[in-house]
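User: Sequence in, structure out. Go.
Assistant: Echoing your sequence, followed by the structure tokens.
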Amino acid sequence: MAEKSVNLEQTWATAILNVFRGVGIGIANVIPGVSGGTIAAISGIYDNLVYCLGNFFRGGWRRTLAYLTPILAGMLAGFVAFAGVVDAALEAYPEQTLFFFVGLIAGSVPYLVKRAGDSRFRLRYIVPLVVALAVVVVMGLAERPPAGDPITEIDAVSALIVIAAGGVGSVAMVVPGLSGSFLLLLFGFYATMTNAARTLNFPVLALFLIGILAGLVIASKAISWLLRNFHAASYYAIVGLVLGSLVGIWPGWSGGEGSLASVLFGLLGLVLSLALGSDIKERLRARQGYRAERESELHG
């Protein structure tokens, strides 16, 4: 099935809504095991986002930049403003906080299935779903490798390694369900990035940023191609990635005094996610159109 049309037109109301969507993506990047791509998919901007990142100069860069700016501003604001809040919540109420995100992610599955655009499930969709699910489950259950020694001095070889690290980390920004920190650990880049951020090693950070930008473009082009040519199968793969990500953030069940609160926070996340993925907005528009039509008939 072909990729659904990408619409980058936005009103002021849509731009403001995209700021809040960006805030959600920024907050997600703070949570261990939660992918910003998952929140982008839940909030309904995933197709547009990967298209813009992979085709920035195609069809007018000004229009693309205008669409991306509110999202990127929200991401930055969410990351900066809520990083401390999320860290504090994870430290003080780890189980309840993670249950909220479990509910949020689980509640996105019906919407993602609907976004596949196929009216019925086909057997061929099992393969991408199961493969994607297995990959993320294995990553979630695997023992974290040691961080290794950080790269602090730059030469020709280390520069290429740092750029590659940025490219690896950027994949998690556009692929729902993948943890960027785990990917960096898996390829031995995590210590380099954390050390560079802590010590403000600007040469390493600059090369890492170059890798991120290059990786975002390449990964987004690849995903955009998959959505264009295998839209339904790609979304079932995303469903597998999202379901698999639950393994990585599942906090366990303590059975203690905070268990009821954990359930309530999980339900809150579930309800919020289901509401975000519902057709409320479309139904409101349809109702407004119906009212306008009735008023036209009455006054006509």
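User: And one key feature?
Assistant: The chain has a mean pLDDT of 80.
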